[in-house]
Amino acid sequence: MIDYIKGTITQFNPTFITLESAGIGYFINISVNTFSKLESKSEIKLLIHEVIREDSHQLFGFADSTERDIFRLLISVTGVGANTARMMLSSISPEEIEKAILSSDVNILKSVKGIGLKTAQRIIVDLKDKLGKQAGSGEIFAFADNTKRDEALSALVMLGFAKSAVSKVIDKIVREEKNLTVEDMIKKALKNL
Prior knowledge:
single chain; about 50% helix; Helicase, Ruva Protein, domain 3; DNA polymerase, domain 1; alpha+beta; five-stranded mixed barrel; 3 domains
């Protein structure tokens, strides 16, 4: 398994690069996000994800580990292939994808060409828990007691608030203050809704 390739860019395009390392030129698919980070460089270190099938071996390159981690999470979802994940990372930044998943914002994901309502919903359902355990900066999300969070969420939804808006507000509150009671979470959320 290739983790990264260090070398010289010999061909540069918004969707792929050719990276020469030790006399071998590697054709590597990239996102527009990675393209913009590599634009003025000639010598680079590119993080790699390999996709090996019967009929092809493809390399996907990333400027940083955050983007590669999001790519790997996306391709773990049924119906999302490597090219679809690359399209998503070309249309939206990794941070925006992560935020959309955590806040259950289907519309941001649907704005990507090739992503329909069902796929967007599947991405959110499959990845929300995985992303909830890690923040974009790599730190662990400390939901000390998920049951308190879920109780507050359910109470506010029953009061008539939209689940996605409530979820976003409660997650923000939990990140700022760790040991709140359900009642305190609800009171703070009502001030922000």
